[in-house]
Design goal:
Elements: H1 4-25, H2 32-45, E1 49-53, H3 56-66, E2 74-78, H4 84-91, E3 95-99, H5 110-116, E4 121-125, H6 136-146, E5 149-153, E6 161-163, E7 169-171, E8 178-182, E9 196-200, H7 203-212, E10 217-219, E11 222-223, H8 234-243, H9 247-265, E12 271-272, E13 291-295, H10 300-309, H11 339-347, E14 348-351, H12 359-374
Parallel strand pairs: 2-3, 2-4, 4-5, 5-8
Antiparallel strand pairs: 1-9, 6-7, 8-9, 10-11, 12-13, 13-14
Helix pairs in contact: 1-8, 2-8, 3-4, 3-7, 9-12
Length: about 375
């Protein structure tokens, strides 16, 4: 699905010296590289505060701790996403409220959020799924009306921009009260191990979070709140700081690959190609963490098996709706409210998507998919 070896071979000359600097300084924890990367990411995103941490799951958890959410508070998020989002809500003894997604964007459905709001609702967690920002103007307006926090899960959309109704643009992750991201190796900005970060424009919240990531310490050995130990180590920061200047180029390579895929599958009666590349869309709207088709009247699992036979990697993100996962079922849920997710888990397939895809590979992948579907 990704070609991390091919990517590393091309950037070894810039990544290795950055890592070596850390090795020579031996400042492995909280070294100058971490601070440097933090500043550079703040500038890139146009956000006041970046707080690096150990991974994207911690980032979500720490964001929720920073907001002071309390057991029993309801947090609304999408049914169709990676489990980390709902996991941390449950772990903090908050009440997850899963809602359906939009059939075109696959992002959280604003009408479904409206229906799920109760007096106990405290926050909404939109996930910018596959690299496409959720409908943030609508979500922020709804949150304002009901006095709710918005926590953006930006693990899949770093570098994407959201165009507001007035035409201005904001980077995904710089819109809500707070946002989280992941630097897992296969993410659009990936390090060579685990890493994550929290973003916010709120000075007080940033201060609170900086203490939480460091055992609740604001002054050495004074523990004011219950915190965690969650750090981005200096070697990972060195990798990320070397790769950050390439992020826009990498996202453009992903979009170009997506355009070629879309062209090959255009107007096919059994294939719905992803949105986000229309003329009206800005050139950094969808950053294609995944390239995902929605199949109609195709045996998706047979196609998966066929591609595997031809040594073409593919993925199903995600095969089970979160509300049907054993850990997260709840008798309050009603199947009729999850129509879109229940369909998508059976019809989506993600094709290889990374920065090193070439035309021959795309041609081989698309012709194999089309041959299978056309000959059924
Ligand atoms: C990857 C991912 C996470 C978790 O990130 P980790 O760094 O693996 O903990 C959370 N949410 C979404 C949507 C993700 O894709």
């Amino acid at each position: 699905m990704v070609d991390l070896q091919g990517q590393y071979a091309k950037i070894k000359d810039i990544v290795d010296p950055s890592i070596e600097e850390v090795m020579n300084s031996a400042a492995f924890i909280n070294g100058p590289k971490v601070h440097q990367f933090q500043k550079n990411l703040e500038d890139y995103l146009g956000v006041k505060h970046v707080i690096p941490c150990a991974n994207g799951t911690d980032a979500l958890q720490i964001a929720m701790m920073g907001l002071g959410l309390k057991p029993g508070d309801e947090v609304i998020t999408a049914d169709f996403t990676f489990a980390a989002t709902v996991e941390v809500i449950a772990l903090l003894q908050l009440t997850p409220v899963l809602v359906d997604v939009d059939p075109v964007t696959f992002n959280i459905d604003v009408e479904a959020i409206k229906k799920a709001i109760t007096p106990k609702t405290k926050a909404i967690v939109p996930v910018h799924l596959y690299g496409l920002p959720a409908d943030m103007d609508e979500i922020m307006a709804l949150a304002k009306e009901h006095n709710l926090y918005v926590i953006e899960d930006n693990a899949q959309a770093i570098g994407a921009s959201y165009t507001h109704k007035d035409g201005s643009k904001t980077k995904a992750g710089a819109i809500g009260d707070v946002a989280s991201t992941s630097f897992f190796p296969s993410k659009n900005l990936g390090c060579y191990g685990d890493g994550g970060a929290i973003f916010t424009n709120d000075d007080d919240l940033a201060h609170t979070i900086r203490g939480i990531v460091n055992h609740g310490m604001y002054k050495r050995y004074h523990h004011d709140v219950v915190g965690v130990n969650s750090r981005l180590d200096s070697i990972q920061a060195a990798v990320l700081d070397a790769k950050l200047p390439l992020l826009d180029k990498y996202n453009t390579a992903r979009r170009n690959a997506a355009k070629k895929y879309n062209e090959a599958f255009k107007n096919h009666p059994n294939i719905i190609t992803p949105t986000g590349l229309e003329d009206k869309d800005s050139d950094d709207y969808h950053v294609f963490h995944q390239y995902t088709l929605n199949l109609k009247n195709v045996d998706r699992d047979a196609l998966v098996a066929h591609l595997q036979e031809k040594n073409i990697p593919c993925g199903v993100y995600y095969p089970i709706p979160l509300h049907k996962q054993k850990a997260y079922t709840d008798e309050r849920y009603n199947e009729a409210d999850f129509k879109v997710t229940n369909d998508l888990v059976q019809s989506v397939i993600s094709l290889p998507m990374h920065t090193e895809l070439d035309d021959d590979q795309i041609e081989f992948i698309t012709s194999t998919v089309l041959n299978f579907i056309n000959n059924k």
